[in-house]
Amino acid sequence: MKLYYAPGACSMAPHIVANEAGIPLELVKVDIPNKKTADGADFWLVNPKGYVPALQLDDGAVLTEVGVVCQYLADQKPESGLTAAAGTMERYRQMEALNFAATEVHKQLGALFNPKMTPAMREVQLGVIERRLNALDKALQGRPYITGPRFTAPDAYLFTVLGWTVPLKIDLGPWPEIQAFVGRVAARPKVQQTLRAEGLA
């Protein structure tokens, strides 16, 4: 399988999941602004949406969207514990966390990278982000990971997008549970392996 990625982008989440599950991936770096792969190929031909991640399966089919790619990879190695069995409440809680990461954390933080965002718009956006981080901090109280004692696919996604608070200069000081979560995930050997592979450690 090939994972089309950009260092530190949301594609890092499935990269972490694959490493945690022991799934070998061929990494293909993408220049997102120019929509070109490292070897000069047209990325639009891989993913007509124009963004990472894109996971090309061995049969040539391509999967996109972070949560779906993370779930797919975790399902390939159920023994890894990265996802719960289909139909269980634990599985639905993990899906809930993946969706929260995608729609309420990823999209809210990601909007701040827009160079056309005015100071007034930024202020409004930061207010939304504060509410989302308040909810996340509360959800992490008394548990090391978002759905309980075990690291699962949603943790990889949350860790990835929370990492954007550094370049965005958002201080996580008001959210001690989130700070502890980020440190806990960052210390995982497979996460460190991922960061090194993407040139971020």
Quick take:
By secondary structure, the protein is α+β, with helices and mostly antiparallel strands.
Description:
This protein is of the alpha+beta class and 201 residues long. It has two domains: 2-80 and 190-197, Glutaredoxin (3-Layer(aba) Sandwich); 89-188, Up-down Bundle (Glutathione S-transferase Yfyf (Class Pi), Chain A, domain 2). The chain contains seven helices and five strands, in the order E-H-E-E-E-E-H-H-H-H-H-H. The protein has helices at 12-21, 66-76, 89-110, 119-139, 153-162, 176-186, 189-197; strands spanning 2-5, 26-31, 36-37, 54-56, 62-64. Strands 3-2-1-4-5 form a five-stranded mixed β-sheet. Strand 4 and strand 5 form a beta hairpin.
Overview features:
9% strand; 47% helix; 201 residues; 7 helices; single chain; alpha+beta; Glutaredoxin; Glutathione S-transferase Yfyf (Class Pi), Chain A, domain 2
Secondary structure: elements and pairs:
Layout: E1 2-5, H1 12-21, E2 26-31, E3 36-37, E4 54-56, E5 62-64, H2 66-76, H3 89-110, H4 119-139, H5 153-162, H6 176-186, H7 189-197
Parallel strand pairs: 1-2
Antiparallel strand pairs: 1-4, 2-3, 4-5
Helix pairs in contact: 1-2, 1-5, 1-7, 2-5, 3-4, 3-5, 5-6
